[in-house]
């Protein structure tokens, strides 16, 4: 079981609520990040809390959705999982790699860690990927690239069952070293949260 390094900010079985939908390209920060991830909150109080509370997620302080559970499976790798999702399930997750962990990854390719699944309940694996778009953006004033990939999700026989989009941000020179963020579960509002984030270590 992965060691927890952050509070479980909420619970709920969210895997069935996820989709591979796309978010709109935005190259500038929004001061009022919206959306709460695969399962959106309907209450005003909870929604407002997501705009004022930040949580350290690897090298970034992010406006956290109330269900986020932050874990660090290995050095330089941070995952945000849907709190309450059973370990045996294909849980909604996005990853942030930092420093040497990010430098060891080819940022021009879709990052899919070992054992990762495509969104949904079928436990489909990623068979192949292709880049569909690339956009220059900024995360806390640091130049970054947002690349969108189309992932082919295959069953045990290798037959494609569906495709999903992975959004992947790469910051080559953040105050904390190279940083890569990969989301194939379409966490609602993550793009806006990243553009409203701050680095946990300030630039010199």
From TrEMBL:
| Taxonomic superkingdom | Bacteria
UniProt keywords, alphabetically:
Signal
Region Disordered: what ranges? 22-55
Q: Which residues form the signal peptide?
A: 1-22
**Protein known as:** Lipoprotein
């Amino acid at each position: 079981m992965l060691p927890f390094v952050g509070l479980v900010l909420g619970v709920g079985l969210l895997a069935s609520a996820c989709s591979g939908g796309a978010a709109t390209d935005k190259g500038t920060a929004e001061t009022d990040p919206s959306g709460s991830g695969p399962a959106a909150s309907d209450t005003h109080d909870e929604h407002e809390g997501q705009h004022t509370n930040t949580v350290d997620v690897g090298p970034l302080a992010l406006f956290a959705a109330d269900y986020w559970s932050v874990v660090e499976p290995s050095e330089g790798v941070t995952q945000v999982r849907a709190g309450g999702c059973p370990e045996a399930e294909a849980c909604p997750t996005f990853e942030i790699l930092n420093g040497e962990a990010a430098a060891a990854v080819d940022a021009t390719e879709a990052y899919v860690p070992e054992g990762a699944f495509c969104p949904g309940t079928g436990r489909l694996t990623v068979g192949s990927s292709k880049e569909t778009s690339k956009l220059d953006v900024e995360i806390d004033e640091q130049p970054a690239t947002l690349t969108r990939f189309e992932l082919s999700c295959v069953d045990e026989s290798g037959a494609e069952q569906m495709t999903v989009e992975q959004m992947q941000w790469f910051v080559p020179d953040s105050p904390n070293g190279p940083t890569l963020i990969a989301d194939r579960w379409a966490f609602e509002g993550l793009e806006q949260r990243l553009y409203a984030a701050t680095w946990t270590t300030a630039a010199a």
